[in-house]
Design brief:
Shape of chain A: elongated
Oligomer: heterodimer
Largest sheet of chain A: none
Number of strands of chain B: 13
Radius of gyration of chain A: 17 Å
Order of helices and strands of chain B: HHEEEEEEEHEEEEEEH
Helix content of chain B: 25-40%
Strand content of chain A: under 5%
Largest sheet of chain B: 4 strands, antiparallel
Amino acid sequence: MTAERDAAFSEFVHGRRPHLRRVAYAICGDWHRADDLVQTALVKLYVAWPRLHSEGREEAYVRTIIVRTNIDEHRRPWRRERSGLPAREEPAREPMPLEERSALFAALQALPPMQRKVVVLRHWLGLSVAETAADLRISQGTVKSHSSRGLGALREALAADRI
Amino acid sequence: MDTDIRDELDRSFGYGPPLDHVDDIVELGHRAVRRRRLALAGLAAGCCLAAAGVAWSVVDSPGASSGRDVTVQPTQAPSATESPAVAGDPPVEYVDADHPGLGGADVAYDDGVLLVREGVEILEQVANPLDRRPPRTSLGLALAVDGAQQWALVAGSPSGSTVSTVPARQSFPDLQTWLDDQVALDRGEPTLALVSFGTGAELVAEPGVEIVQQQPSPQVGAEFAGPDAVHTAVAEVRWQGERWFVLARELPGSAPEYFPTAASVSAPTLAGFLEFARAAYSGGAGLR
C-alpha cells in the first residue's frame, strides 16, 4: 500500500510541483520561501493522500494550504512591523535574473497581501469568485473589491511599462 | 482583459532555481504519517485513561450520579521534538556582537554552527522543533540576554538562518508550549486558540476547555481592534489545570484570531488581564 501511495504521490509531485511552486512564488515573491510553502503543503497532502487522491482534489488542497499558510506566515512575530523584537530575516539567495522579473510582477508584489492573493487566484489561475472566497476564507464581496483594486494597479503598471 | 492579464502574469516571472528531489518530500510525508499515528495513539490512550478515571471516580464516590459533569482534558499531540531529524545539540561558538554571522541578532546558525553573542547564556535547548531535514535544521532556545530571559526559535539552512525571539513567558507559561504554537504556525496548522467564535461575539470552548467567564467587545484599544472590527471578545478559561485568558477578534476580510495568554504570566483576574493587554497593545508589541 505504501509503495503504491508513494508512487502515485511522486507522480503528482513530479507533474504539478513546478506549477504549485510558481503559485507560491507569485504570492510570496521569494523562491526559497516558496519552496518551504510547497514542501509544507505537499507533506500535508501526503498525510491526507488516500482520501484526497480518491476525490481528485490533490491540487486544490495543496493550493489552499499554500495561500493560507502564507497568510499565517505573515502573522509570525518576526514579520510584524511593530513587534520591536530582535529578528533577522534569512537572506534571499540566488536572486531572480532581472530579465525574468517584469514590471508586472513587481506591481503584483507591491499589492497588499490579500489583494495579491485574490489577483493570483482569480486572474492568473482563473478561479471563480466563489472558489477564491472559499480558498482565502473571505466573503465574495471582499474578493470583488480586492480584485477590482488589484487589477487597477496592474493595469497601471502594464500601461506605464508600455510607454 | 482577463485572458490578457492571465497571459501577462504567466509571462511575468520564470521557474526559479532547480527543485529538490521528490524523494525528500516522500520521506517527510512518511515521518508526518508516523507523527499522526503517534498522536492518534496518544489521544486514544488519553481517552482510555479519562474513561478509567471517570469509572474509578464513580465507583469511589457513592453519591455520584451518571449525570455529573466530567471535563476531559485534551491529550496534547506529541511534541515535534519527539522525533528530531538531527540528534544532539549543534556546536556552539561564542562571538562578538559585531560578528557578521549574527547579523545583529543574539543567536544565529552559520554553516552548521550556532553562533551566540558573548554575554548571552543558553538556559535550555530543544532540538529541531520544526523537524527540518538536513542540511536544514532548527533549534528552540531559552536565553538569558542582558538580564532578561528570552525564547528563540532558530531556523537554519546552508545560506543562513531566521531567528524569532520573544520575551520569555510573554503569553505562554513555558518554552515548549510556545514552541508547539510556533511549530503549528510554521506548518499552517491551527495554533493554540482554546475558544472560537460561535454566534456573533459569543465564544465557544474548544474540547477539553472550560469557559469560566467571557465578555464581548473588551476595551483593549485601537491597536488591538479598530471600530471596523466585526467581533471582539475576551474569555477566562481553564485548560489542563491552568487558567488562561483569550482575546479574540475578527477583522474585516480576515479569519478570526485568538490570543491565549496564561494567567500565570499576565494577571490573576480578568480585569487585570485587560490592563495587561491594553499596555501590551498601546506599547506596540501586542500579545504575539
